[in-house]
């Protein structure tokens, strides 16, 4: 019995041992499996460990900036702050005095103190954001922090900022303030380049949250958005904006368009519309359309420039040939000249161009060119196809070529609709020796990390519709449109510069019924100008739609109030100096200018006075940093010599009796924006003599009849000629069907 009992104990022990060994093997096997697979019940143990011992946070990237041609930001990401109020009393710093805190914040941010008190006097919330206190500037944050209010803290919220406000707004467009979505303009069309990609840094830490010295650091670097540099010239754009704003206030037109281009390259130097908007306040936008690119309308007589070029190029134009102005019959249809069909008797075709005769261009289209040839030139000048400008939503044209009369009406600017940018592109062919340049606004796209361009726009020839000789002939006639007593462009003359241009007055379809709008001012008035006339460096197109003008005023007045300051200051910003009678009289025996840079301003002024010159010192500091005329140039006795000192503020001189040339020279050296209305000599100024002005400030001057007898008669004659011409221009291009 004992032996049997002993065997049972042995077998039991062996069984328990086997079970124990199997358990150990199972546990060991599980450990081996876990070690190899790093997974338990579909949970990734490696990830859990890394999550417990690792920490990561985002590295914020910046959206790319949009820059003008000089590299100044016109759209950028800036730091901003949202105000947070801690209400929970368990927190060491909380709002303990809701009324007092509300009163203090309201005084800084101009909020309603009562509503703010109600917001802060809640015990059911841990913290609250303050309505109207989001996206605060650094200055606003600092001003509130200086109040040392309990429970008030800030959260950093980067935002999109447009420092120049209403500045090329339809070109730039806008994003939501938090940059979550790009809405229009280049902000939207180039979003793939401007958009940023946040990075991330991951590191290991101990149980106290401290970074482990030997731990792994994984850095996924952030990628900032690319910067976009434009062809827009800041100074020219500002002059255009100011001129459009002033005319908008004075004449309340339905819309306005202004474009400034370099005809040698196709670069757009300025572009704006009215109505416009401030992209920092995009909730108040009323007009989302960039009329310069996305709107088409009958151009009026500006198109006659290209009809003329076609006739000259084809060898069928004889400027001295006579024709009977007044009316022109095409089957049952009658085309009148813009003076109610009265015409000017038998005149030459050259005079017909100067007077903007519809009859002259109907004859050219139907009798000289023939319709098929005319439309070939319409194609060659790019009026059938969009220009391809690098702006979104460019509109296409609508060219009427179904009936014989369509050629006539298209030749003088009615019946067919084109876009302003198509007209500017076509004008580059006239200004650029026959080579038509494709317009563009994006100069380059730049990697901000390296400063190198990842994309660069080069000037592109869009076509060569005419020869250099034809372009020169057209320019000569366009210059006469402005300078000749018979020309419709006299209101656009600028003292000291030869301007070539063509006026236009287009009818508008009645939106409420058949036919066209009638009545004084119910037209689109425009002017296409370029200068200097012998070799244009700048093309300016301005259109004003239905301005509220007085019965005695013509549509040329509001257009000229945009064109003249923009063209004049564009030329001077581009260092194209006016040619005056004084300059023509400079001879070898004149005084040669010394280099005065770096010299004491008072001593330099005394030297100039001793030489019989008139020094004008700009600024109060001692050292001369720039001068005009430049060193080695010839100057006449008594001529003004401008000396700029290294100063940020200047004393306003008394401009009374100064010439347009002199005041613009002073303004350019002082970096002050200047708008001069009228012609002749300064009669009034918006900032009084003796007041302090600084760079970037705007001055308005009125020019009028000189007090000098030698100039009085010429100014009076010019004024009378303008008045006579404006009376005639009001009805220009009215087209009636019998």
What features would you describe in this structure?
Among the domains are: 343 residues, Beta-lactamase, CATH 3.40.710.10; 124 residues, Trypsin Inhibitor V, Chain A. It is extended and about 150 Å long. Strand 10 and strand 11 form a beta hairpin. It is of the alpha+beta class and 738 residues long. Helix 9 runs antiparallel to helix 18. The longest helix has 36 residues. The chain is built from 22 helices and 37 strands. The strands form 13 sheets. Strands 9-5-4-14-22-23 form a six-stranded mixed sheet, with no helix packed on it. A five-stranded antiparallel sheet has the order 16-15-27-26-25, sandwiched between helices. The C terminus is likely disordered.
Key structural traits:
Beta-lactamase; 738 residues; 22 helices; disordered C terminus; 33% helix; 6-stranded mixed sheet; Trypsin Inhibitor V, Chain A; 5-stranded antiparallel sheet; alpha+beta
Layout of strands and helices, then pairs:
Layout: H1 2-37, E1 39-40, E2 43-44, H2 45-53, E3 54-59, E4 66-67, E5 73-78, E6 81-86, H3 98-109, H4 113-120, E7 127-129, H5 138-145, E8 152-156, E9 159-161, H6 169-172, E10 174-175, E11 182-184, H7 185-189, H8 191-194, E12 199-204, E13 217-220, E14 227-230, H9 234-251, E15 255-261, E16 268-274, H10 291-294, H11 304-313, E17 322-324, E18 327-330, E19 333-336, E20 346-348, H12 349-354, H13 358-369, H14 371-380, H15 404-412, H16 420-431, E21 436-437, E22 442-446, E23 453-456, E24 461-463, H17 468-483, E25 500-506, E26 524-531, E27 538-545, H18 556-573, H19 581-584, E28 591-592, H20 601-610, E29 614-618, E30 624-628, E31 634-635, E32 640-645, E33 649-651, H21 660-670, E34 673-678, E35 681-685, E36 692-694, E37 698-704, H22 709-729
Helix pairs in contact: 3-4, 9-18, 11-13, 11-14, 11-17, 13-15, 14-15
Pfam families: PASTA, PBP_dimer, Transpeptidase
Family: Belongs to the transpeptidase family.
Biased composition (Acidic residues): 715-738
């Amino acid at each position: 019995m004992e032996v049997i009992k002993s065997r049972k104990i042995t077998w039991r022990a062996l069984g328990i041992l086997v079970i124990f060994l199997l358990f150990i093997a199972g546990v060991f096997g599980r450990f081996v499996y876990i070690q190899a697979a790093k997974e338990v019940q579909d949970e990734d143990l490696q990830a859990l460990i890394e999550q417990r011992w690792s920490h990561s946070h985002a590295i914020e990237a910046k959206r790319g900036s949009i820059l003008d041609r000089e590299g100044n930001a016109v759209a950028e990401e800036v730091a901003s702050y949202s105000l947070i109020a801690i209400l929970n009393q368990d927190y060491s710093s909380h709002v303990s005095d809701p009324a007092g805190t509300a009163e203090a914040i309201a005084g800084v941010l101009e909020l309603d103190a009562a509503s703010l008190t109600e917001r802060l006097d809640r015990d059911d919330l841990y913290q609250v954001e303050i309505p109207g206190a989001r996206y605060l500037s650094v200055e606003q944050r600092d001003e509130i922090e200086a109040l040392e209010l309990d429970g008030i803290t800030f959260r950093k919220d980067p935002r999109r900022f447009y420092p120049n406000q209403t500045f090329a707004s339809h070109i730039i467009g806008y994003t939501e303030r938090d940059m979550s979505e790009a809405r229009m303009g280049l902000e939207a069309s180039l979003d793939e380049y401007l958009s940023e990609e946040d990075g991330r840094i991951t590191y290991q830490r101990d149980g106290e949250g401290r970074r482990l010295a030997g731990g792994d650091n994984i850095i996924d670097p952030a990628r900032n958005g690319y910067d976009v540099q434009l062809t827009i010239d800041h100074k020219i754009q500002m002059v255009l904006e100011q001129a459009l704003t002033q005319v908008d206030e004075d004449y309340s037109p339905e819309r306005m368009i202004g474009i400034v281009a370099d005809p040698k390259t196709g670069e757009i130097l300025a572009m704006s519309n009215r109505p416009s908007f401030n992209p920092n306040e995009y909730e108040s936008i009323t007009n989302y359309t960039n009329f310069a690119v996305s709107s088409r309308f009958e151009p009026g007589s500006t198109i006659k420039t290209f009809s003329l070029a076609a006739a000259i190029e084809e060898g069928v134009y004889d400027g001295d040939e006579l024709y009977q102005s007044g009316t022109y019959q095409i089957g049952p249809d009658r085309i009148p000249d813009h003076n109610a069909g009265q015409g000017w008797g038998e005149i030459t075709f050259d005079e017909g161009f100067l007077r903007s005769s519809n009859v002259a261009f109907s004859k050219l289209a139907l009798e000289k060119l023939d319709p098929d040839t005319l439309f070939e030139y319409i194609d060659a000048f790019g009026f059938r196809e969009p220009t391809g400008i690098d702006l979104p939503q460019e509109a296409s044209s609508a060219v009427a070529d179904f009936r014989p009369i369509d050629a006539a009406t298209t030749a003088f600017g009615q019946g067919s609709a084109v876009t302003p940018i198509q007209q500017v592109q076509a004008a580059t062919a006239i200004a650029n020796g026959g080579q038509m340049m494709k317009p563009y606004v994006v100069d380059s796209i730049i990697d901000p990390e390296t400063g190198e361009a990842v994309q660069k726009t080069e000037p592109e020839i869009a076509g060569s519709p005419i020869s250099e000789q034809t372009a020169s002939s057209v320019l000569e006639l366009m210059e006469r449109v402005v300078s000749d007593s018979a020309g419709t462009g006299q209101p656009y003359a600028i003292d000291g510069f030869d301007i070539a241009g063509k006026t236009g007055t287009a009818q508008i379809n009645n939106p409420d019924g058949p036919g066209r709008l009638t009545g004084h001012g119910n037209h689109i008035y425009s002017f296409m100008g370029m200068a200097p006339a012998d070799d244009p460096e700048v093309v300016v197109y301005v259109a004003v739609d239905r301005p509220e003008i007085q019965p005695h005023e013509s549509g040329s007045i509001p257009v000229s109030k945009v064109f003249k300051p923009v063209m004049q200051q564009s030329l001077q910003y581009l260092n194209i100096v006016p040619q005056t009678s004084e300059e023509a009289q400079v001879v070898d025996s004149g005084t040669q200018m010394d280099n005065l840079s770096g010299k004491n301003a008072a001593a330099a002024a005394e030297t100039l006075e001793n030489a019989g010159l008139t020094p004008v010192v700009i600024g109060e500091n001692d050292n001369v940093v720039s001068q005009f005329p430049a060193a080695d140039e010839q100057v006449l006795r008594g001529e003004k010599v401008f000396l700029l000192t290294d100063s940020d503020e200047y004393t306003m001189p008394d401009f009374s009796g100064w010439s347009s040339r002199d005041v613009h020279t002073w303004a350019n050296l002082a970096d002050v924006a200047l708008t001069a209305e009228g012609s002749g000599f300064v009669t009034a100024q918006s900032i009084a003599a003796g007041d302090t002005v600084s760079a970037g400030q705007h001055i308005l001057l009125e020019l009028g009849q000189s007090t000098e007898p030698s100039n009085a008669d010429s100014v009076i004659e010019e004024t009378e000629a303008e008045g006579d011409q404006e009376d005639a221009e009001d009805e220009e291009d009215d087209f009636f069907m019998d």
